[in-house]
Amino acid sequence: MSTPAEIRAQAAILLMQVVDEGRSLDALLENRSDAPQERGLLRSLSYGSVRWYWRLLAVLTKLCSQPPEDLQPEVRALALVGLYQLLHTDIAAHAAVAETVEAARALKLNRATGLLNAILRRCQRESEKLTVGVDEDPSQRFAHPRWLVTHLHHDWPTKAESILQANNEHPPFWLRVNTRHHTRDAYRELLMGQGLQSTVSEYAPEAVLLPQAVEVFSLPGFKEGWVSVQDAAAQLAAHLLSVEPEQRVLDACAAPGGKTCHVLEMQPALKEMVALDVSGERMKRVRGNLKRIDMEATLIVGSAADPEAWWDGVPFERILLDVPCSATGVIRRHPDIKVLRRDEDITHFSLRQADMLRRMWPLLAPGGRLVYASCSALRAENADVISAFLDSQNDARDITAEVLARFGSPQLSMGEPNLPGEKQVGWAIPAGTESMDGFYYACLQKKTN
Fold first, then answer.
1. Entry pTM
2. Catalytic position from the list 123, 325, 375, 443
3. Which residues, in sequence order, are bridge partners of residue 321?
4. For labeling, which of 127, 188, 235, 307 is most exposed (least CB within 10 Å)?
5. Would 162 be classed as within a structural domain?
6. Is 375 a catalytic residue?
7. Domain residues for 37?
8. Element (H or E) spanning 429, and its range?
9. pLDDT tens-digit readout, 63-114
10. Are 267 and 280 in contact (CB under 8 A)?
11. Are 306 and 225 in a shared domain?
């Protein structure tokens, strides 16, 4: 068992690895074997410190006599973890200060204990004055990089601040009920039998929301495939795809396989379900998820940007293209995105997305439907990609509005035009809408002549 100080030391090392080494926090935590009693605190401190990194850094700048970047990385990270406890948790202030200072000794940074103690105790005394000054800057108040705040205000003129706020909330725990086994209401009764309250989504017919996350194997029938964990916004993909019996369907960029499984749960009588992903390692997760729900698909390790290497020439009636993106719509689940992403990454993503879309289009049968999906919040990766494609592709038509009209659910925002009279394409869902992640969908139909 690690001591409270050692857990704080570990959280600081994780923060340093994200900020200074550009590593994924999810990946860093994935294979750890921490005791259950300490896992919760470690995850809370590491995710929280990353989530509020930009605000904490601004506070540290005011508290420190030298620029924070001049501090030893481990010392800077410990200071930020300590500030997170004081400013964003209900941990007793004396414990936060004492254990964080002790964490420096655990990391053999004895000479830094005096500095850390002074920084944290001053924050404890002057927190109100410090945060008022810091929070005058929206970038610091919402703990987002300035470039991203600028993009969000440009792309979402009336919703930017609500998106920024949603990005800092604890991620909701959505389930997808496999209606091949139970109706949604019947599964909610099973949850109730275990003392688990739940609510439902107005938009995703199989979605159930629990007030807090639980161990998945404690869920009724999880091993048997009765239920899966998937955000309600991601569950909309299978409905927008609207597959029919005897169709050939491609899920491009399929890993970890949630959308592939959902399509098969909704329509098991397909001619063929093909799941494609460039990563053989990630394809193992697709295979595992299919096995759990007792369904089959054709699995292909290959790139959506290079169909010549794997496509057999037989067209698909439906294609789901869930493109690699900046993931700026799912920041509340992956707060390290705020630290790892750079402004210049967006152009790289948008060029890659446009190339994938162009290369996937010939695989679609005439009259077929391609659903472009992205968990980015930015127009450059969403509506701009689709608009440019429609301008260049005469046999493509945006039918998103028509599909939504037949969807049978209340309309969500279609996004916000930047200019008066600008035509909107696709369906943009801002993060936090009905407790959903930020997502973008465009339903494109290939003309028959």
1. 0.94
2. 375
3. 252, 372
4. 127
5. no
6. yes
7. 4-143
8. strand 427-429
9. 998 999 999 999 999 999 999 999 999 999 999 999 999 999 999 999 999 9
10. no
11. no
